[in-house]
Amino acid sequence: MNRPLDGIRVVALEQYMSGPYCSMLLADAGAEVIKIERPGLGDPRRSIPPFAEKGEKKKAGGFMAYNRNKKSLALNIGPDSGKKVFLDLVGKADVVVENLRPGSVDKMGMGYDTLKNINPELIYAAISGFGRLDGFKGPDSHRPAFDIVAEAMSGIMNLVGYDDKPPSWTIYGMADVYSGLCTSYGIMQALFMRERTGKGQFVDSSMLDNMISLNERMVMLYSITGLEPKRGRLKHLFPRGAFPCKDGYIALNIPDDLVWARLCRVLEREDLIQDEKSKTGTARASNSDKLTPIIENWMKERTREKAENILNKNGVPVGPVYTARDVFESKQVQARKSLVDIDDPQVGLHQFARTPIHLSAAPEIPARPAPELGQDTEEILSTLLGYAEEKINELQKNEIIQIYQG
Q1: Residues recognised as catalytic
Q2: Does residue 3 lie in a domain region?
């Protein structure tokens, strides 16, 4: 059995998170991903802590997490000789993934309009802050962006946190990771279309668009009601949030009156089912200050596990608020193989988040560790591009390429 993208070759002109996460998903799916990196420096995440260390060897954790199952080609694409190598590689590729500053590749003569003439079947996926496809460009399309900018401008930050505090970001890199996921989905669509038409296309992935799509509930509420959702407590729903137990927190959400009645029976407060101050979500939200202590007092007398078991058994879906240690020790996480073991020859065995989808007719994802800078340069140039040894030596002498020496 093969992975779904076996035989697909991806050239990844990428750095930081969104591009690398996208191409890692493709690599996990079986694609051959050739990561282009600057000689001497490589992807900036190679030098960003934290580091996995073993003896005198160390490797950046963020780089390890987003670059497994890839090959590294250390290539300076600035000079004409380096550009020629890149163009030769594109001629043998199915997909290019790129998340450099908008306009930079076009200025170098390596944008999609150039590359599609070399390879009409090429799928070129560009990740940017605000989109790059002609006909859909806005006043911000030229701007670079980090993940927090997309969170802010999509309205997500305005909904995170408390109403008496400033807006808050969610988790580090969420817009990057989600954009990588969305872009891989776009690439899959383009590959499927190519099977029918024989033609490639430009895949335009905007971090702002991606985060707005994730914030669809805000869009729906404003479109239907004209009201702007606010961060903090909901006005139509209660309880919803984390409630303290003896040894941590339980996440509780009561979406309707039926589940509220179940909770009341567990709390032994059936009087609250028909009480005017608690019989509806709106009423409960208005009287949350009085209802919260009732729930908290019940929770505080029990451990997370005990409270979870009782509530779930009685039809009130809840879950413990896990710490990182809890996630690693969870039997559910282990059973799902949500964490993949990557054994790096330099720094040893570590676990990283697995591609989330399981396929019944495909083997497990590969687990090749993130490459050293230029680890596959010589193999790619000699085997894939057919360069003679003399030409490779000349490129190395002129510092166009870097070959990993081990």
Answers
A1: 176
A2: no
